[in-house]
C-alpha cells in the first residue's frame, strides 16, 4: 500500500520511500536542501519485512530509495545523493558544506564519506544483520560470520571515532554539517542498533563499541530541524527512527536480576537508602551479615550472576570491597567514593567496571568535563554512572552523597543520552523507596524503559518475583533489577536467590 504527501512548491522531485529503510537518508537530505518534493510512502510486508510489489511499478528491482525527477528515474542511494547535490544544492541558500566534484580536500571528503556509509559500513554491517535475523548469531560472537563482519565494522567504527576526535566532532574538517553527515548517520545508527541487540560480553569479545565522539555526533545530527522533519514525515515522530525496525529482537530481551553487595563500616548490610547520612543515629538497618563480602562475591560467581555491584556506603569499606573483588576478578562493578584519581586503582584491583556519581557533581552541579575526563581515562566500556535519584513532584532529581544532597540534574531522556555518550551502563537507585520493600517506583521504571539506550539496573523497593516480572513488563525487558532486603541471603522473606538464578537462566537462554 502506498500513499503520497508533498511539501510546498513544485520541483518535479518524487521520493519513493520505503518505511524504515536507507531512503531515510534521502528524506533527511531533501529536508536539509530545502527543495520542494513529493514523497510517496511504501509499507514493508509485516511478515517478510520486504518491499511489496507496488515498488516494482516504479523500478523493476522493487527497492528503495528511488527518486524520480520529471522523466528521470534514479536508483541507488548514492547516485540519488549525487544527483541532488549536483542539481539541487544551492550553497547561497543553505549551508551544507562543499558540493561534490571540486578539486579540494573537503569536497572529496564529502564524496568519500558518502561512499563510506554504503561501501564500507553497510558492506560490513549487512552480513551481521542477516546473521542476526536468521538466528546465526551466537551468545559469545564466535560464529565465523560474526567474526568476519566484526573485523570490518571494528575498523570502520574506529576510523569514524578517530576522525571525529581529531576534527572537533566534524566528519569533514572545517565544516559543521554536510551531506556526508546525512549519509553517514543512517549507517552508524543502524550499526548502533544492531550492537544494542547483543550482550556486553558479545560486544567485548568482538571489540565492537560505538565511541563517545561518535555517539555525541549522532546526537547532534538528530537534533537538527531537518532530521526531525524527516522523522516526522516518515511517521515516527517522538520515536527513535530505527527502533521499530529492531523491535522484535529488543522485545525478546528479558529483564534479569543483578546482585549487590552493600558495604557499611566494612560489613555487608542492607540499609534503608533514604536514612544514610554522616551520623549513624538516623540510620535504619534491615540486615547485618555474618558472612564476609567475599562469601557473597563467590556465591554470585558460582551462580554466574553477572553485572552485580559492590557499593561502599561511607568510609572504612576499602578492604571489604577489595576482598569481594578478589573473590571474583572482572565479575563485579564497584562504586562509592569513586573519583578520577582512584578509578583506575579499583579496576586494577579486579573490578569489571567502576561506578561513579558524587564526583561528577562538584558543589552539586553536573560537570561534563569530569565525566569526559574519567571516561577517557578508564574507557567508556568500564564506566557505569550511578544516576540515583529522589522524586521531586513529578520529576526525578539525581541525588548524591549517600542520597542526602540534590544535584542540578533531572533524570530524563536528554540527561541520560548525554551521560550514555560517556559510559556503558547506568545504575539507578530510587533512593526514596530503597530498602523499604514496599514496591518499585513503577513510573520511573517505565520511563527508564523508554529512555535508556545502554544496559541499566534499577534498585529500590523490590519485594518478590512479581516485581521482577513487573520491571520486565514495564521496561519491555530493557531494565534489570536488584533485590536487597527482600532477598533470603540478606535475611529477607520475599524472594530466594535460587528463584532468581532460575529466572536469569531462563531469561538468557
Ligand atoms: N544499493 C541499494 C540498496 C537498496 C535496498 O536494498 N533497499 C532496501 C531498503 S534499505 C529495500 O528496498 N529492501 C526491500 C526489498 O528488497 O524488498 C541502495 O543503496 O539504494
From TrEMBL:
Return the SUPFAM superfamilies for the record.
GST C-terminal domain-like, Ribulose-phoshate binding barrel, Thioredoxin-like
Query: What's the EC number here?
Result: 2.5.1.18, 5.3.1.16
Which superkingdom does the taxonomy of this entry point to? Eukaryota
| Pathway annotation from the record | Amino-acid biosynthesis; L-histidine biosynthesis; L-histidine from 5-phospho-alpha-D-ribose 1-diphosphate: step 4/9
Its UniProt entry gives the catalysed reaction(s) as: RX + glutathione = an S-substituted glutathione + a halide anion + H(+); 1-(5-phospho-beta-D-ribosyl)-5-[(5-phospho-beta-D-ribosylamino)methylideneamino]imidazole-4-carboxamide = 5-[(5-phospho-1-deoxy-D-ribulos-1-ylimino)methylamino]-1-(5-phospho-beta-D-ribosyl)imidazole-4-carboxamide
Q: Which InterPro entries match?
A: Aldolase_TIM (IPR013785), Glutathione-S-Trfase_C_sf (IPR036282), Glutathione_S-Trfase (IPR040079), Glutathione_S-Trfase_N (IPR004045), His6/HISN3 (IPR011858), His_biosynth (IPR006062), Isoase_HisA-like (IPR044524), RibuloseP-bd_barrel (IPR011060)
Family, per entry = Belongs to the HisA/HisF family.
What is the protein's given name?
1-(5-phosphoribosyl)-5-[(5-phosphoribosylamino)methylideneamino] imidazole-4-carboxamide isomerase
